[in-house]
Amino acid sequence: GATTHPDDVLGSGDVKYHLGTSSDRVFDGKTVHLSLTANPSHLEVVNTVCLGKVRGKQMQRGDVDREKVMALLLHGDAAFSGQGLVPEAFDLSDLISYQTGGTIHIVINNQIGFTTSPSFLRSSTYCTDVAKVVSAPIFHVNADDPEAVVHCARIATEYRQKFKKDVVVDMICYRRHGHNEGDEPMFTQPTMYTKIASHPTTREIYAKKLVAEGIMTEEQVDQALAAVKKDLDDSFEAAASYKPNKADWFDGAWAGFSVASGDTRRGDTSVSMDRLKEVGQALTRVPDNFNLNAKIVRQLDAKRKMIETGNGIDWATAEALAFGTLLLEGNSVRLSGQDSGRGTFSHRHSVLVDQTNDERYIPLMNLRFGQAPFEVIDSPLSEAGVLGFEYGFSLAEPQMLVLWEAQFGDFANGAQVVIDQFISSGEHKWLRMSGLVMLLPHGYEGQGPEHSSARLERYLQLCAEDNMQICNCTTPSNYFHVLRRQMRRDFRKPLILMSPKSLLRHKACVSKLADMGEGTTFHRVLWDDGKVLADDKIKKVVLCSGKVYFDIAAERDKRKQKDTYILRVEQLFPFPKLALTEEIGRFKNAEEVIWCQEEPRNMGSWSFIFEPLEQTLMDIGGKATRPSYAGRAAAASPATGSMKKHIAEQ
Predict the structure, then answer these.
(1) pLDDT score, position 247
(2) Peptide bond preceding 494 in cis form (omega within 30 of 0)
(3) Among 71, 75, 247, 636, which is least packed by CB within 10 angstroms?
(4) What helix, strand, coil percent values describe the chain, rounded to 5?
(5) What's this model's pTM, rounded to 2 decimal places?
(6) Rg value, the chain, Cα
(7) What stretches in the chain show pLDDT beneath 50?
(8) What SS3 state is found at 632?
C-alpha cells in the first residue's frame, strides 16, 4: 500500500506498528472514544505513559469517580514477567496522585518470547504472578474459546468499574507463525511448532462449535469468511490510492496551538508587581494555630522580607512565584519527584507540616478563591515509571505545567528509555507535543560520581530539529521566566533544566522582584555582573553555563583580571546564535574566547557547543576565530570521589 507518512506531513514518521490513532465507535447506541497511544518497540515502556494520559483526561473531564476514562494495557507474556516497568505501573495503581481507577491488563500469552521458551523467561509459575504484588484478580482463559475470553473480559471490566482496581486477563494461546517474517520457529521450538502446524485455528474451532450447536450452517460460515476476505481485498486495492487525512494533532485540548517557528519566541512571561506581591504574601501565610517547625518559621520570615523589600529573591522563592502566578492566570501546576514536597536539598518546603499532628498545609493551594489547582507529589522511588507517567499527563493536558524532578540529576538515566523514545523524539515521530519540564540537579561540589552530573551531554546529543530546550540558569529571575515561558507560547516543547544545588543558598545567586515584573523576560545569554574594562579593552571572553559562573567570577575578582569578560549561556539548545553574536561581537579585540565547564572534556557542553561557537566567532570576524577549552580532562567517571582531589580540580 501507499505510505502512511506522505511528504507534506511534518516530522520523521515511524513504522506503522508504533503509531497511535483514535476513533469513535458506537456500542449499543453509545459512543466510545478509543485512543491508541503511540509506543516504541521498547516493551512495556508505554504503560505508565498511557496511565498518565488517562489521569490527565480524567482531570479534564472532572472524572473524580474515574469511571469515564479507562486504561486498557496489552502485554506479551515474556515482557509482562520480564520488564521492570510492569511492577512500577502496578505500584502506581493505588497511589493517590497516580490513581486512574484501575487498569485492565490483557496478556497475550503465546508461551514464547521471540525464540525463548517460558522455562528460560521466568521463575514464577505464571507470567502474570507479578500482578499479585497488588492482589489483582487474574483470569487465566483458553484463547481458543472466544466466548470464554469475552466472558472474562466482561467480568474484568465490571470488577474495574466497581472496585476501581487493576485486573488481569491471561489469554493462554500460541503464536502460529514466527515473531516476524525472518523468524523460522522450527529452528528453536520444533516440537511445539509441529503441534501448532496440525492444530486447527481458533476460527475453525469456533465455526465447528457453532455448526454443531445449530447456530450457523456450513454455508453461512463460508459466506461470512468470504465477506471478510472480500473486505480485506478491497481495502488492499484501495490502499494504492490512499491519501491520509489532515494531521489532527491540534484538535481537542490542543486546539489553538501551532508548530514552533522563529528564533526568539519569548512569550510574555512578565508579571505585574501587584500580582507578584499577592503571591509572595500568600506563600508566607499560614493558618492560625498551625504549629510550624522553628526553622521553617525563620525561612518564612526571610521570604516575607524578600517580598516586602523586593531584594534577595532566592531560587525557591522565584520558583514558587512562577508557580503561583501561573495558578492565578488559570494554568494548573503538577510537580512530582522523590522528595519534591520538601525538596531534596530542603529548600522548597512547598508542603508545611504541623509539628503536633502531621497536618499538611500547602500555600500554593491557598492563594485565592478560583485559582487553578496545584499538586506537589512525593513520588515513589522510580525514575522510568514516574517520568513516563508525567510525560503521558503532559500529552493530555497542554494547559498544565507538568514537572518531573530527579532527586539528583545523575539518577535520571534510570529513565533513559523514556527520554530517548518519547521526550526527545515524540513530536517528530508521532506529531505529539509535550511541555514537560525535567528538573535535574546538577553541579560539581565534591559529592562524587553519583551526585554531581545530570549527564548534560546526553541531552545535548539528542538535540536537533528544534525538538526540545536545554537550559542551565544562573539567576532565580531567569528560572522564573523560563518556567512561565512553558505556558506563555502557542506551542509546547520539553524543557530540560540543569537545576542547582549549592546555588540554592548562594548569597550571590539572588534576584530582584523587579526582574520578574512588567517588561522583563527570559534571557538566553546573560551578561557579566562584574566591574570590568570597556568592551574594546577586553582581552579574554569566557563563556560558561550554570553554577561554574560563580566560581569563575570569584577567581577573576581574586586575581583582579578586569580585562576578562564572562558570558553565561543560559539556554544551550536551541543554540542562541543571534544573542551570542551580538554579545561576543562587542569584544572584537579579544584575543581569546574560552568555553569553561566543570564537567570532563568528553562530557558537559563542549562537544556540542564547539562547532556552533566556532561558526559564530568566524561570522563576527574578530581576533579570536576559534574557541578554546578550559575544564577537567576527559574521564570515564563524571566526578572524583575524593573531596581533596575535587577541590584541586575545581
Answers:
(1) 60
(2) no
(3) 636
(4) 40, 15, 45
(5) 0.94
(6) 29
(7) 1
(8) strand
